[in-house]
Amino acid sequence: MKPIRVAMLGCGTVGREVVRLLREQADELAARAGAPVELAGVAVRRPHKHADLGDLLTADAPGLVTRDDVDVVVEVIGGIEPARTLLLEALKAGKSVVTANKALLAEDGASLAVAADASGVDLYYEAAVAGAIPLLRPLRESLVGDRITRVAGIVNGTTNFILSAMAASGASYADALEEATRLGYAEADPSADVDGYDAASKAAILASLAFHTRVTAADVHCEGIRAVTAGDIAAASAMGCVIKLLAICERAPADASMPESVSARVHPAMIPATHPLAAVDGAFNAVFVEAEAAGQLMFYGQGAGGAPTASAVLGDLVAVARNRVLGGRGPRESAYASLPVRPMGTLRTRYHVSLEVVDRAGVLSTITGEFARHGVSIAAARQTGEGNGDGSARIVVVTHKAPEAALAATVDVLAGLDVVHGVHSVLRVEDLGRKGVAG
Amino acid sequence: MKPIRVAMLGCGTVGREVVRLLREQADELAARAGAPVELAGVAVRRPHKHADLGDLLTADAPGLVTRDDVDVVVEVIGGIEPARTLLLEALKAGKSVVTANKALLAEDGASLAVAADASGVDLYYEAAVAGAIPLLRPLRESLVGDRITRVAGIVNGTTNFILSAMAASGASYADALEEATRLGYAEADPSADVDGYDAASKAAILASLAFHTRVTAADVHCEGIRAVTAGDIAAASAMGCVIKLLAICERAPADASMPESVSARVHPAMIPATHPLAAVDGAFNAVFVEAEAAGQLMFYGQGAGGAPTASAVLGDLVAVARNRVLGGRGPRESAYASLPVRPMGTLRTRYHVSLEVVDRAGVLSTITGEFARHGVSIAAARQTGEGNGDGSARIVVVTHKAPEAALAATVDVLAGLDVVHGVHSVLRVEDLGRKGVAG
């Protein structure tokens, strides 16, 4: 059989593992693909660092991706440019593409999909979300006969490691981040992870696939974990909850204000300690999917790392190779639904609001009155720390489901009241379809 | 677009849901498949029971599956015959097949696969294992670039409901079975579930897909849960374990006695209470997959029921329809590896053995001596119930990993000893890659 020839862009942690597995499992991969799968070239910026790849190395990425002897381009460089230009060139030249580039897919997946369709080639990217966990193919294919209503989960291992460490030891955010950095779970500049951007990219990809529409990173409401304190973790624990950074993608039925729509958001949230996602610790990922007929499903595994991510890349690569051997292509993305994205302000969730107030009779009544005035119904309110000597007390309010905008307006007013020293924290409470959370 | 026309065989719980979803989601399914997906006919034994299907109904299944206007045959009747003959006729006539028939696939999947290949059509069966959980497609496609080493899980909801009920309430097997029957989780004749045959069929299908080889139901060592007692559940609890009916498929490297091989078995086993599978209660299913590069993955969801199973059938149906619209077919099964199946006697696991013995000095030493004589290394042995007045005591032995045959020979000898009143139970202990089980 004529081999399927692969050009790889980038050769970092994931790329090295792809090369290793392509070599070590060559016979098995050939049997599964229907033809040998061979490396045709590897484009890197600093060829001298990869001497063992010999003649395969090149610094000329644009030349490599359009070379006549290349069938498939595997992209593991990440970032928007030059990845976008290179992949668009490759697709235009009739090469199938396998990429792990979540940022690019979330920003401009539509351009790539259009280019792949124009050439009739495959565009696969299982590795872009939740590493080794087979998630995109199940969404795109296994559940294609069902109606997905929600995808929610832990899709960033760095932040889950930090939050798990804070919960386990009572450590501060800063100390937990330092430990994550020391152990290699966080990068020197942790912003993409801790500010939620990485998870937001993944949420955009998940929402697009799950709801057959187009959602970009800019559509995703994004809050990171920098503001989560040891006190928040303790407050969650007191409510029988844990705090996780969640990506939540939902389909919302039509209502008076909007036709059927979708939403996608990333933020820390309290979830019940009994929920399966609460038990997902350390750098692991897990995603819940709810569909009308299938009910609740969960997918769990390693969300990052060289070998797990390479497993996902190779699964796509063998699938693409097999499609080329058979002369076809796999199922395309479909964005036929073209659903609008619901603004964050209209979403309804529950909230845990913690305030420092003046320790004086009537303050609790003033505070709860502001919630009522904004139409935010309270499930529970309690005041602690009275008589602690400094004249201040702590009020914690847990609401029923309320529109984000109403809650935000309430908090704005509260922050300006004379009797409020400060708003300690505002955390969303998500039961993810489970019962039993206070409130 | 020319519609894709579907013949359905059987119209029970799953079939009714397939009909409902095909009708309610017709527009969405058409958008995803690239053409309308229409029912061409439904073959049932008693047409008068399904009057709402009108002209679609027929009692002539053989005529329906070869009709010129039929593109795809969906089979939800179950059992070996007439399903096998009908599906072979359909495949021979160039129809793609979607089936939920685990018994047929486990007994004679090879014949179906050969017939599908001969005609160049699809044979899909996601619904045959673990209901709505996307599991076969991830094994067949997402992990096709990886090397799966183990698939282990809870794949029968009825037995998991019974074992969960026994663990929660201390109920006997008989009482828990009665409750399961009353609630509709167990059939009037529960043998296929409680004797492990259903799980064994699924194990054969999982092992075949995971290891790219052919494993049939006859290759699967199968023990059910009828012999599990409330005492066993309590003994497991005392060890920090729970008892689950597991299907375990493993790849074994070559050793002195055999080349590389696979094994598949179904039996009750103690697993650590901290293992994610231990938390899978009631009628839910969950499957762990371990692969060399991907590491540990878990898939969780509803393993049975009309709507969840129909979700899996429809996912396959849309995929098959899309393949026909595009003029191709999906990835085939591959059985290129042709690995031998390892005999149960050569497998190595750990055991929890409970004996009633004569309450006399030296008995523990006699018992442990027999283990040693058979080369079975003991992790822990303890004696309880001395001085309980009836002259008997209980000895519990937990072994290190030992060959099944050596353990069986040990137990045979123990049962014949004068000092042994009886062998109370022999249970395997599986840590499934986790640490922390006693011994």
Automatic annotation (TrEMBL), chains A, B:
What Gene3D superfamilies does its record include? 3.30.70.260, Dihydrodipicolinate Reductase, domain 2, NAD(P)-binding Rossmann-like Domain
Q: Which reaction does it catalyse?
A: L-homoserine + NAD(+) = L-aspartate 4-semialdehyde + NADH + H(+); L-homoserine + NADP(+) = L-aspartate 4-semialdehyde + NADPH + H(+)
Keyword Mitochondrion carried by entry: no
Among InterPro entries, the record links this protein to:
ACT-like_dom_sf, ACT_dom, Asp/hSer_DH_NAD-bd, HDH, HDH_cat, HDH_CS, NAD(P)-bd_dom_sf
Which pathway or pathways does this protein act in?
Amino-acid biosynthesis; L-threonine biosynthesis; L-threonine from L-aspartate: step 3/5; Amino-acid biosynthesis; L-methionine biosynthesis via de novo pathway; L-homoserine from L-aspartate: step 3/3
Coiled-coil positions: none
The alphabetical list of record keywords is: Amino-acid biosynthesis, Methionine biosynthesis, NADP, Oxidoreductase, Sodium, Threonine biosynthesis
Under Enzyme Commission nomenclature, its number is 1.1.1.3
- Cofactor(s) this protein cannot do without: a metal cation
Task: State the protein's purpose.
Answer: Catalyzes the conversion of L-aspartate-beta-semialdehyde (L-Asa) to L-homoserine (L-Hse), the third step in the biosynthesis of threonine and methionine from aspartate.
The entry's family comment says: Belongs to the homoserine dehydrogenase family.
The protein's name: Homoserine dehydrogenase
Q: What species does this protein belong to? A: Pseudonocardia adelaidensis
